[in-house]
Amino acid sequence: MPEKAQKRGGPDAAPRSAGDVPAIELRGISKAFGPVQANRDIDLRVERGTIHGIIGENGAGKSTLMSILYGFYKPDSGEIWIGGKPVQITDSMTAIRSGIGMVFQHFKLVRNFTVLENIILGAEDGPMLRPSLARARGRLRELAQEYELNVDPDATIDELSVGHQQRVEILKALYRQADILILDEPTGVLTPAEADHLFRILNGLRDEGKTIILITHKLREIMEITDTVSVMRRGQMVASVATADTSPEELAELMVGRKVLLQVDKTPAAPGPTVLSVRDLRMRDEDRVERLRGISFDIRAGEIVGIAGVSGNGQTQLLELLGGFPEPGAKITGEVRVNGQMLDLSGRHSDAATRRARGIGHVPEDRQDEGLIMDFTAWENIAFGYHTAPEYRSGPFMDRAAIRADAEGKISRFDVRPPDPDLAARNFSGGNQQKIVVAREVERNPDLLLIGQPTRGVDIGAIEFIHKRIVELRDAGKAVLLVSVELDEIMALSDRILVMFDGMIMGERDPATVTAGELGLLMAGVTDPTQPAEAGIPPAQIQPADRSEDRLVKPEGMG
Ligand SMILES: Nc1ncnc2c1ncn2[C@@H]1O[C@H](COP(=O)(O)OP(=O)(O)OP(=O)(O)O)[C@@H](O)[C@H]1O
User: DSSP characters for 352-396?
Assistant: First the structure.
């Protein structure tokens, strides 16, 4: 019997007592949205005190299934059993009363309320009847200590880093006495160090007997932390296995229905003339905080330059500025040239359409806020930013038929599901929304592609596909600037790696020779591993990419 399964209490673990009933049992759950059968006759059994992973391609129906369990959607048919009893989960309050808590991809916190206020908000109807604030504070402190979930109860949500906001969501569920915790792609927004911390918390919760369901696209996380894993494909449950008995390759194949290349396949770059040249770029935001502090680099035709860094160190600002979305009120100095021509950096003129006319493609990091107009259809979104392109025009008017035909082609080549150009962007699953943005930008064959978090929330089949398209663009002699918090992605795709820390470039490394450890130190501001870090932290204690507090830290003397 595999040691891991034994240790973790998975299905192959030591026999349970006869009275043991599963924490969750779903029987024959089906749910359709119009013509889309999101869940089809799904059975699922999760044992108490285990971590169960759910994986599947974008649009496979994972979020729908969990939303049914949490009372967001009513299934068309099927039963939910919790702790051996059938329950009718009609809304999230019933789910909470049944001991179920959910941490969504997009947090549901009131941003200008404090942590404490958020935690007790709505709990008055739960098992903790009208708690006094003092009692709530005490309980919160206990929970925080018990589960390593430290967070300042009096901070407002706006002041917290993403990792801390997620802790508040978990605390909220625990405060409501959740025995079952569902997490939907919880590490998508976290740095590696934050993700490690989250996993320690989840391990602790499991040891306390809680049951955890983890939806993720990252097979590494499945292998590392889960006891059992279920695979969904096109609305159906195709397998449920003990993690110790499977492998990433097997899971990938189960998910996609074919073998998937888990590595990027590329030949060495053959760089040509300089496409992007950035000189002494500086930016102060409207609070006068210096976000970019003298950035200089070049990207040549036929190369991918990756920017590694903990989020919040200026990469987002750099990408947005180059893409024509400078922060409102920002003060920018420096020089940027594309194909030798100077770019106008003054906020007023640097709009995205002008950039695109100059051959710059841009996949923003935040696809929902900047990449798409969520209420517009897929075909309208595919024209977004390119509506003045000659092939989309018929005389002075937009040629709807031409745009739709083009959109249909992109949707088919990028395997966007469902392949419906008339569906509003918000009704596509997260990964399919991302494919729409990437299809729009990559297929324009830009001279310079600026691409942020290209595979966030995207399934492995689509990651393989998107990576291939990026490499093909490079091989066609285009320049690519890649920003990603996924070190694996940076190392696999880049021809050169630049590391950003505190608004500056700390150094350049060759992906063929650099180690993840060395990159991690540079990302923490350490250029010489024998010397203490800038912030005075001994190198040995620096976690690669720990940005838990970074959103709060402003460079000295600023803001
Ligand atoms: N409210 C809705 N209206 C119409 N269709 C929907 C709605 N919600 C989900 N769908 C469709 O149901 C299917 C399943 O979506 P779901 O979000 O459950 O997938 P997922 O496996 O969680 O995907 P991802 O990994 O991309 O988040 C998709 O085809 C999606 O477009």
Answer: HHHHHHTTEEEE-S-IIIII--TTSBHHHHHHTTTTT-GGGEETT
Q: Per residue in 85-100, pLDDT tens?
A: 999 999 988 999 999 9
Looking at the DSSP assignment, which residues form a beta bridge with residue 338? 276, 341
Q: Which atom of ligand 1 is nearest to the CA of 60?
A: 21
How many other CB atoms are found less than 10 A from the CB of residue 15? Answer: 6
Q: Which residue has the CA at smallest separation from atom 8 of ligand 1?
A: 427
Whether the CB of 463 sits within 6 Å of ligand 1: no
Question: Residue 27 to residues 42, 74, 96, 150, 461: CA-CA distances in angstroms?
Answer: 6, 14, 20, 38, 29
Tell me the β-bridge partners of 306. 482, 497
Ligand 1: does its nearest atom lie under 6 Å from the Cβ of 201? no
Question: Taking 50 as the threshold, does the pLDDT of residue 559 lie above it?
Answer: no
CA of 275 relative to ligand 1 center, distance in Å: 39
Asked if the bond preceding 75 is cis, omega within 30° of 0, the reply is: no
Q: What is the pLDDT of residue 351?
A: 67
Give the span between the Cα atoms of 160 and 549, in whole angstroms.
8
Residue with the smallest CA separation from ligand 1 atom 18 is: 61
Distance CA 307, CA 450 (A): 11
DSSP labels, 332-360? EEEEEEETTEEPP-STTT--HHHHHHTTE
SS3 content of the chain, % helix, strand, coil (to 5): 35, 25, 40
ipTM above 0.85, yes or no: yes
Residue-level pLDDT at 222: 95
pTM: 0.74
- Cα(417) to ligand 1 centroid in Å equals 9
Kindly indicate the confidence band of residue 161, based on its pLDDT and cuts at 50, 70 and 90: confident
Judge if the beta carbon of residue 461 lies within 6 A of ligand 1.
Answer: no
Helix (H, G, I), strand (E, B) or coil at 250: helix
The tokens of 289 are what? Answer: 């905080």
Q: What's at 372, amino acid-wise?
A: L
Q: What structural domains does the chain harbor? A: 264-272+301-329+447-559 (3.40.50.300)
Which residue's alpha carbon is at the smallest distance from atom 31 of ligand 1?
428
Q: What does the block give as tokens for 389?
A: 């392109």
